[in-house]
Amino acid sequence: MNQILLDRTTNSLDFQKQLQLLRKSVDAKKPLVEILQDAGWTYEDLIYETSRTKAWTGRTPIDLKEVCPLAQDIPLVSFFTGCGGMDLGLEASGYKHIAAFELNELSCQTLRYNRPQWNVFGPPTHSGDVSKFEEIAETLEQIVSIPFEGLFAGGPPCQPFSIAANQRFSKSGENFKRIGFSNQVNGNLLFDFLRLIITFRPKSFVIENVTGLRDIDGGIQLKTMIEELRTNGYHVEQPFVLNAANYGVPQYRSRLFVIGSRTANVLKYPTPSEEMVGAGSVLNSSCRELANSETREHKAASILRYMRLGYGQRDQLGRVDRLDPLLPSKTVIAGGTKGGGRSHLHPEIPRTLSVRECALLQTFPSDYIFMGASARQFTQVGNAVPPVLAAQIGNSISESYF
């Protein structure tokens, strides 16, 4: 097992000093950040009761630069691009980026900042809204031919199908979101994407979504979509689920893929890794100087609860989990559309993760910058496809169909 033991106990001077500072903050009703500053401490100096008793000593996650690009400039158009997780992976596997359609302006800012050479269609110069078929089609007609001898890729917004999103709401409440295709906006975007595929006839397509898409409405809607594609001349693989942790990503993240082609070839599925990668492979001090590394200034009462947790345990009040460095992280979450939601707790520091730490668990490059307020950055990262997983999907598609 990739584990080493270090001597760090509740009897250490550091831990006793920490207790004094936390109690002082509570008793004096003074913000913890000020108490720590007065003592010459930062949040990064805080520890758990059982801190650093484990450490990851195995391999690091797959780097996008290590991906063997098999696509050889196959043209790519992406939809619902978000901050670019799928696109980065496909870029690494050799696809030539033709266009990206995204309606969220902050996501567009992130895309344009990091990839100024990409054609990003979205606010403020374009709606980027796939539900506006005529506008998207008019734009595409100026860029691609029909049939399109490349790849269409997209992950329609998943909130109507997400189980995690709906654990927060009562089924009888107006905010209950797992209503699938009865949702008049996001629930129909899958079929808007379907219409674009049928109209422009890409040689291949990949649709990514949460696993809930497979089961919503008893699977009728997904079956209907696949039958429509087959009627229009596409060979469509049976929908399948991949867990990113099995493909070199230090995070448990299960996603559904629907892949098809105008050819009759059978898809060669990605090969799982022999060993999973623990969260401790990226959650270390080396990322603190990177962009998007700001962390939340928790109250002393929260730290007093968090610091008692063992590896893998949950704080029931805050509903956050301390990660185990020897295991892949729990799924990085996006939160609601109004904010960034909750992130997990760092394995060794009793605080929630930064945007950068979440992005590293997602396998984004360390120099990829996320725009907007912190809550919106979390949303972008949490909604993304892990680029390393997308790269392997991209190679499978190019090997099979092109």
Structural account:
With 402 residues, the protein is an alpha/beta fold. It has two domains: 13-58 and 277-381, DNA Methylase, Chain A, domain 2 (Alpha-Beta Complex), CATH 3.90.120; 64-275 and 387-401, Vaccinia Virus protein VP39 (Rossmann fold, 3-Layer(aba) Sandwich), CATH 3.40.50. It is 30% helix and 10% strand. It is built from 13 helices and ten strands. It has helices at 13-28, 32-38, 85-92, 105-114, 133-141, 163-166, 189-200, 212-215, 220-231, 300-306, 355-361, 374-383, 387-401, and strands spanning 75-79, 96-101, 120-121, 151-154, 204-209, 235-236, 240-243, 254-261, 314-315, 320-321. The strands form two sheets. Strands 1, 2, 3, 4, 5, 6, 7 and 8 form an eight-stranded mixed beta sheet that branches. A two-stranded antiparallel sheet has the order 9-10. Strand 9 and strand 10 (320-321) form a beta hairpin. The longest helix has 16 residues, at 13-28. The two termini are 41 Å apart. The relative contact order is 0.16. Mean pLDDT is 89; it is low at 1-8 and 159-187.
